[in-house]
UniProtKB/TrEMBL annotation:
Any matching Pfam family: RDD
Transmembrane region(s): 12-33, 45-70
Keywords: Cell membrane, Membrane, Transmembrane, Transmembrane helix
Native species: Pedobacter yonginense
Protein's membrane topology: Multi-pass membrane protein
Entry GO terms, CC: plasma membrane
Descriptive protein name: RDD family protein
Intracellular or extracellular location(s): Cell membrane
Superkingdom assignment: Bacteria
Length: 129
């Protein structure tokens, strides 16, 4: 069976959904913390950093993010697209995606599998279900 790969628009829509969810989670946690007196700043910072950096790597390791689910796409191992990526691959992939932003998607049209820079670095590929 030939593999199908999502186009740039589908990937950007998925990323947009995930970004909105992360912002929503940050607002919710901020409002919850505001209910307590004298919450140390380090707790707020640690919580927000953990939301930002744990959301995508953990969910990709166990299945998919909300954006991936809604758009019907999944991140898989490049060497075997039937397998989910492991936590190490997810932890390598996400910082490149976060730091490079839109620039990471420049390579999508340069290879048959439509792999972005963060996919090339982590050994992953996006597939359509």
């Amino acid at each position: 069976m030939e593999q199908k790969y999502p186009n740039l628009l589908q990937r950007l829509q998925s990323t947009f959904i995930d970004t909105l969810l992360i912002i929503l989670l940050m607002v919710i946690f901020s409002n919850l913390l505001d209910r307590f007196e004298n919450v140390p700043d380090w707790i707020r910072i640690a919580l927000f950093i953990s939301i930002f950096f744990a959301y995508e790597p953990l969910l990709l390791t166990f299945g998919c993010t909300l954006g991936n689910y809604v758009k019907g796409i999944r991140v898989r191992k490049y060497s075997n697209p039937t397998e989910k990526i492991n936590i190490f691959q997810a932890l390598v992939r996400y910082p490149f995606k976060a730091v490079l932003g839109w620039v990471s998607f420049l390579t999508i049209h340069t290879n048959e599998e439509r792999r972005a820079i963060h996919d090339l670095v982590s050994g992953s590929v996006m597939i359509k279900l």
